[in-house]
Design a protein that fits this description.
With 430 residues, the protein is of the alpha+beta class. It has two domains: 165 residues, 60s Ribosomal Protein L30, Chain: A (2-Layer Sandwich), CATH 3.30.1330.100; 196 residues, NADH Oxidase (3-Layer(aba) Sandwich), CATH 3.40.109. The protein contains twelve helices and 17 strands. Strand 4 and strand 5 form a beta hairpin. It starts with 6 loop residues before the first strand and ends in a 21-residue tail after the last strand. The model has no long low-confidence stretch (mean pLDDT 91).
């Protein structure tokens, strides 16, 4: 049995690259011995130079702004962003090193297209069929240090999907997808170095990595990205993207997700070191129907007492459909145990208001945490208008005050974009 082995070597002799240079011609002159099946690893910096991606920039930060699609995380001056190529990296890939003062290098506009063009041109110049990977240097979440990864590819299988196979012990491989192009890029970086002036490397002896692929396959889709934002950014995103959802799918709600949201809710501030929050979770359809039917009857009685017509009553009752159609309901309740009693109207009113504010903070925590669990929600005030009915149906203690109902479920449609609000109209300076 032949022991697996491969060779990776740097290519010396690549001159300083300038805009308009035929990069493939420069590489062919430095590596005339390229063979069919080789994989060429090309640092993106020289690709950018050849493609004229050198731009004047009075401020590198302004160049980063121009290349940024969204900010993923910010710590001081450091920004991790998604750039126009869909890559999540520091500073959008804008590079101010190894370029003239007052200029910066941008990444290739389409790194896959750059790799395809290099491959085709090398085939023309040397009559060889090689794979090409355009590489760039990345930091990685949860890992210290930098490594090269593939940002463009041609003639290479960028992913090796082993799912459905078995390991050496016969165990099924259910999640194993190997980032082959990134492994090759990192291997090339070992011989290219960061400051050795060796921007190109060749890997030989790995015929199984050849194939067709795009480096975009390495970019995790947003829907599958569990860590799409940094911590502070994720908190702000959850707060601002918390939306009232009024239409849900029939998919069941994970009770564990709701309990995690309750755990977040009860971290809200509260007066006198109390814990004024209680959450009644209606997980069974029977419990939900029993409560909503009783609330509907109480509401109809109130509306008739107000002199509303039957047509008007029917229209108003339909507003409760958001609760009736939700697959899960939670009733937050306020408990004022521990509140001070002053025997003075103004102070007693203020005391209760403290607890109500704490309840509101807990409900907001709850709704934001549900959004973090990718669940939609709608806070509806209805239980506050028939507390005695709710206490009776749910068999609650007399000192539990229902403070609305939260409908919970998977959104039937994505919520529309929220218009951005500036803080100034809500601020008074003194």
């Amino acid at each position: 049995m032949t022991t697996p082995a491969y060779e990776v070597r740097a290519v010396p002799g690549i001159p300083e690259v300038a805009p308009g240079d035929d990069l493939a011609e420069l590489i062919a002159a430095a590596a005339p011995d390229l063979q069919d099946g080789d994989v060429l690893l090309v640092t993106s910096k020289i690709v950018s130079k050849a493609e004229g991606r050198i731009v004047a920039a009075d401020s590198r930060e302004a160049a980063i702004d121009a290349e940024t699609v969204r900010v993923v995380a910010r710590r001081g001056a450091l920004r991790i962003v998604e750039n126009r190529q869909g890559l999540v990296m520091a500073a959008a890939g804008v590079d101010a090193s190894n370029t003239a003062a007052g200029t910066v290098l941008l990444l290739p506009r389409d790194p896959d297209a750059s790799a395809r063009a290099l491959r085709a041109r090398l085939a023309e110049l040397l009559s060889v069929d090689v794979g090409v990977i355009v590489t760039d240097t990345f930091g990685r979440p949860w890992r210290t240090g930098l490594t090269d990864v593939a940002i463009g590819a041609a003639g290479v299988r960028v992913l090796d999907d082993l799912r459905g196979g078995t390991d050496s012990h016969g165990n099924p491989l259910n999640v194993t997808v190997v980032a082959t192009a990134d492994e090759l890029a990192a291997a090339g970086d070992l011989v290219k170095g960061k400051a050795a002036g060796l921007p190109v490397a060749v890997v030989r002896g790995l015929p199984h990595v050849r194939g067709e692929g795009s480096a975009r396959e390495l970019v995790r889709p947003a829907a599958d990205d569990m860590f799409r934002l940094g911590t502070s950014e994720a908190v702000r995103e959850a707060v601002t993207q918390r939306r009232t959802v009024r239409a849900f799918t029939a998919d069941p709600v994970d009770p564990g997700a709701v309990r995690r949201a309750v755990a977040a809710a009860v971290t809200a501030p509260a007066p006198h070191h109390t814990t004024p929050w209680r959450f009644v979770l209606l997980e069974s359809a029977q419990a939900r129907v029993r409560l909503l039917d009783a609330m509907r009857d109480a509401w109809i009685a109130d509306l008739r007492r107000d002199g509303k017509s039957e047509e008007s009553i029917a229209k108003r009752i339909r507003r409760g459909d958001v609760l009736r159609n939700a697959p899960y309901l939670a009733v937050p309740c306020l408990v004022t145990e521990g509140a001070h009693r002053y025997g003075h109207e103004r102070r007693d009113v203020a005391e209760r208001e403290m607890f109500v504010v704490a309840m509101g903070a807990g409900v907001q925590n709850f709704l934001v945490a549900l959004a973090g669990e990718r669940l939609g929600s709608a806070w509806v005030s209805s239980t506050m208008f028939c507390r005695e009915v709710v206490r009776k149906v749910l068999d609650l203690p007399q000192d539990w005050d229902p403070m609305g109902t939260v409908a919970i479920g998977h959104p039937a449609t994505p919520p529309p974009p929220r218009p951005e609000r500036t803080p100034e109209p809500f601020i008074e300076l003194r």
